[in-house]
Amino acid sequence: MSLTEELEATETESARVERWRAETLMRVGYDAASAAGLAARSDIDLHRAIELIEAGCPAETALRILL
Questions:
Q1: Which residues, in sequence order, are CB contacts of 50 under 8 Å at separation 6+?
Q2: In terms of Cα–Cα distance, which of 36, 44, 41, 1 is closest to 19?
Q3: Which of 7, 10, 35, 47 gives 25 a disulfide partner, CB atoms 3.0 to 4.6 angstroms apart?
Q4: Distance between CA atoms of residues 2 and 18, nearest Å
Q5: Distance CA 18, CA 35 (A)
Q6: Do residues 59 and 32 make contact, with C-beta atoms less than 8 angstroms apart?
């Protein structure tokens, strides 16, 4: 596999992971824009973002905590 092919595979995998993260965040209650923004940030703990919503924290407040 060439370097270009490896980079494309990595980018594709990264895009899949980001999409999955966004979908997961939307399922628990984040709006699409917020979910996409959080999903794009690998420094944001997905589990913490979910826990905040499941604990009753409004999405707007959760965003302020996470960001």
A1: 24, 25, 28
A2: 36
A3: 35
A4: 24
A5: 10
A6: no
Structural contact between residues 65 and 52, judged by C-beta atoms closer than 8 angstroms:
yes
E strand or H helix that includes residue 58: none
User: Does the pLDDT at position 1 exceed 70?
Assistant: no
Percent of the chain exceeding pLDDT 90 equals 79
Question: Nearest 5 degrees, angle CA 39-CA 42-CA 44?
Answer: 75
Residue type, 14: S
- Give the residue carrying structure tokens 């420094």: 43
